[in-house]
């Protein structure tokens, strides 16, 4: 696939119409209308989106999105496919649908532990070259958390590192696992992070690494980030070792703005940041490449969920609802995205309908009904 500037990808995944993903209280309740963009003729035609409900809580939360999209009269329609984490590969017809539609919304797919079964989540990212993962972690007005002023965008390289899957048993009892870091992938994720910061009025990019120990692998990643940083003099750049990063996150998370990481560290950092800002059930995310994008719950911990939550139908749909708002903006439907985000945040601020992870006892359907009631 020919390389394409990360700038064009950022213009679709990030919002070019607002400075932050998080709404201010003023914008949240403002009745004023503004011109968001001037569409080309035909831009309002309904768009097909591949839908993968997934495992565990996936069918619950994707059904929540379908209901809200219908109530919103959003110009999208879904092509649904049943895919499960215990499959050896993503079925060919599913891949063809994503290639055609270029956009997919999915619930969590479980990854079996051991046994040689590879993760379908990783397969999708590699086959579609979804090299950038974006997870927004921020405080919600009205939701009490340990830390205030958390507003972190975690941008993670999505195709290599420890997730390359290059493992073999050298001799019985000795396994060799290879971590792959390339100049090409390190540079493009660094460019993505800096362009995201620039287009979203962010002030600082922090590179997370372990170059003090993995001097060649993480050293190459760090070198690439430093080179790209010189092209963006208006964006502050700094670096932090991953273990220190974890300590800084849980003690003073408000110091971070945009974080760019290799693959494995990004998974850990995003889930930690999500926990600080209210939990994995709230944080939206997406995976994007030059031609395709998959939107899903941003932080992976618990995105499949335990059986009790599934049986009681009390999964939190907020993360996937906000991810679907990101998807709407990616599809150039910003007004629909704004309405959806406003409705979700009004529900949380009102504090009358929350799922168990947020201290309430509401079902998934209760949250869906509350969101629909707040749609303008």
From TrEMBL:
Q: Which GO terms describe its molecular function?
A: isocitrate dehydrogenase (NAD+) activity; metal ion binding
Task: Supply the InterPro entries for this chain.
Answer: Isocitrate_DH_NAD, IsoPropMal-DH-like_dom
Q: Example GO biological process term?
A: isocitrate metabolic process
* Highest taxon above the source species: Eukaryota
Keywords assigned: Magnesium, Manganese, Metal-binding, Mitochondrion, NAD, Oxidoreductase, Transit peptide, Tricarboxylic acid cycle
Domain Isopropylmalate dehydrogenase-like spans what residues? 48-371
Q: Name one Pfam family in it.
A: Iso_dh
- The principal location of this protein is mitochondrion
SUPFAM superfamilies associated with the record: Isocitrate/Isopropylmalate dehydrogenase-like
> Where's it found, cell-wise?
Mitochondrion
User: What's any one GO cellular component for it?
Assistant: mitochondrion
Against SMART domains, the record matches this protein to:
Iso_dh
Q: Which family does it belong to?
A: Belongs to the isocitrate and isopropylmalate dehydrogenases family.
Report the protein's function: Performs an essential role in the oxidative function of the citric acid cycle.
Query: What protein is this chain from?
Result: Isocitrate dehydrogenase [NAD] regulatory subunit 1, mitochondrial-like
